[in-house]
Amino acid sequence: MLNYHTPGAYEKLQKAKFWVLDLDGTVLYTLEDLANACNKALSTHGYPERSLDEVRNFIGDGVAQLMRRSAPLDLTENQQVELLDTFRKVYTAHLRDTTKPYPGTLDFLNLLKERHIPCALITNKGEVEAKNSWIIFSPASLPMFWATCPTVFISRTRASSARLWT
């Protein structure tokens, strides 16, 4: 989580020309909605549910990996596809139930807006899910760019598969 209130933060902000932030787990707290959707998908298919801490440890590299890590090891490819499809339907319907910005995030983004500093949000959510999870929190007319890469892990050295949108 970013600490926007540390000494020197605003001086650093004044020097920045552009900010890039990760949406899930940095800007927005999304863990509970992800865990709830994961567990609903698992229980719908008769598989054991996971604890919040387990889901926290399984997150990273997108929802397909989350569901692979959460599911029993002996699933067929078809069962994995069905489980992921169920997760996506549940998550899309409930992606803002408990999701909220981390404390100080909206103040920070408003400060970026006031200083006309553009910002990019990066996520491995799909475009629709990303916009729907963010839109209710976004300061109006914030100069914002997005990079989504829902099926490919974006490493520090390889982001060429990302899709940019505004």
Q: Summary?
A:
This protein has 166 residues and is α/β, with parallel strands linked by helices.
Task: List strands and helices in order, with pairings.
Layout lengths: L8 H7 L3 E4 L5 E2 L1 H14 L7 H7 L4 H8 L6 H18 L5 E2 L3 H10 L4 E5 L3 H8 L9 E5 L14 E3 L1
Parallel strand pairs: 1-4, 4-5
Antiparallel strand pairs: 2-3, 5-6
Number of spatially distinct domains: 2
CATH structural fold name of the largest domain? Rossmann fold
Please report the distance between the alpha carbons of the first and last residues.
24 Å
- Strand arrangement, largest sheet? 1-4-5-6
Find the CATH superfamily of the largest domain: HAD superfamily/HAD-like
The number of distinct β-strands equals 6
Q: What's the CATH first level of the largest domain? A: Alpha Beta
Residue share in helices?
40-55%
Radius of gyration: 17 Å
What share of residues are in beta strands?
5-15%
How does CATH name the architecture of the largest domain?
Answer: 3-Layer(aba) Sandwich
> Major beta sheet, specifics?
4 strands, mixed
List the helices and strands in order: HEEHHHHEHEHEE
For this entry, give a set of tags:
2 domains, 13% strand, DNA polymerase, domain 1, alpha/beta, Rossmann fold, disordered C terminus, 166 residues, four-stranded mixed β-sheet
